[in-house]
Design a protein that fits this description.
Elements (H helix, E strand, L loop, with lengths): L1 H25 L4 H31 L5 H20 L11 H6 L7 H26 L3 H28 L4 H28 L4 H24 L5 H21 L1
Length: about 250
C-alpha cells in the first residue's frame, strides 16, 4: 500500500496548501463561518479517531492485549499534551485576533514566524501520523476514511493559519514558506507513521491507538474550544453532530 500512502500524503499536503491559498485570497474569514466549518471537521475527526483508529486497535489487540490500546491512547494524549506545554507558541492558533496581532506587530521578531510553525506542527504531525499508521495496518477502508477526513479539515485550517500572518503584515514569501512547511510536516508525519507501524506488527494496536489518542487531544483541547469562543456555540455544535453523521456514512461507503 506504499504507493497509495504516497498519493494520500500528497493529497493531505495539497489540501493544506489549497486552504492556505484560499486564505491568501479571502484574507478575512467570518468567525461564524469559520466556527461552523471547524465544528463540522471536528465531528468528522472525532468519529474517525474512534471508529477508524481506536476501535480497530481494540479488535487487533484482542482481550489479552487490552492494555495496548489503553496504553496507546494514553501515550498519544500525553505526547501531544507535552508538546503543547513544552513548545513555546500561540496556544489557540486559529483564534489569534487579527487586530491584536496588527497592534503588536512592531514588537514581534522574525522568530515569531518560526514559533508559529512549531505550533502548527503540534497539530499537523499527529494527523499525518494517524494516516500513516492506519495505512500500515492494511485496512484500506479505514485508511482512506482517515485520509479524507484530515484532508477536508486541512482546507479551513490552512485558511485560518495564514490569515493572522497576512493581517500583521508578514511578507508574501514568509506566508508562503509557512504554508509549505505546514504541508511538509504533515507529509512527514504520514511517512513516519507508516515506518513506525512497520517496525513491529505486534505494536501496531498500540501505535494505532496512539494516533487516535493524539487526534482526540487536538479535537478536545484546540478545535472544540476554538469553535466555542466567538458566540456561535450552537451552530458549531450542530455542525459537529453533522460531521459525525457524515463521517459515519463515509466510513460505511468506503
Amino acid at each position: 500500500m506504499f504507493d497509495q500512502l504516497l498519493i494520500c500524503a500528497a493529497g493531505l499536503g495539497l489540501a493544506s496548501l489549497l486552504g492556505s491559498a484560499a486564505g491568501m485570497i479571502v484574507r478575512k474569514i467570518p468567525h461564524k463561518l469559520n466556527d461552523i466549518f471547524l465544528g463540522f471537521c471536528a465531528g468528522m475527526m472525532l468519529t474517525a479517531s474512534i471508529v477508524c483508529l481506536i476501535v480497530p486497535a481494540v479488535d487487533m489487540a484482542g482481550l489479552k492485549g487490552w492494555w495496548q490500546p489503553v496504553l496507546g491512547v494514553t501515550l498519544g494524549v500525553l505526547l501531544v499534551a507535552a508538546l503543547d506545554r513544552l513548545t513555546p507558541h500561540l496556544h489557540h492558533i486559529a483564534g489569534v485576533d487579527p487586530m491584536e496581532e496588527k497592534h503588536s506587530a512592531s514588537t514581534r521578531s522574525l522568530d515569531r514566524v518560526l514559533l508559529f510553525v512549531m505550533a502548527i506542527a503540534i497539530h499537523k504531525f499527529p494527523e499525518g501520523l494517524a494516516t500513516g499508521i492506519v495505512f500500515d495496518g492494511g485496512n484500506e477502508a479505514n485508511a482512506y476514511t482517515v485520509a479524507i477526513t484530515i484532508a477536508l479539515q486541512n482546507i479551513p485550517e490552512g485558511m485560518v493559519v495564514v490569515t493572522p500572518l497576512i493581517m500583521i503584515g508578514a511578507r508574501f514569501s514568509r506566508v508562503l514558506g509557512v504554508s509549505l512547511a505546514v504541508a511538509a510536516l504533515e507529509v512527514a508525519g504520514v511517512i513516519a507513521g507508516y515506518l513506525l507501524g512497520d517496525i513491529s506488527s505486534a505494536l501496531l494496536p498500540a501505535l494505532t491507538a496512539l494516533a487516535g489518542g493524539a487526534m482526540l487531544y487536538v479535537i478536545s483541547d484546540e478545535m472544540i474550544p476554538e469553535t466555542h469562543s466567538h458566540g456561535f456555540e450552537k451552530q458549531a455544535t450542530y455542525a459537529l453532530v453533522a460531521g459525525v453523521m457524515v463521517m459515519l456514512m463515509i466510513q460505511k461507503m468506503v
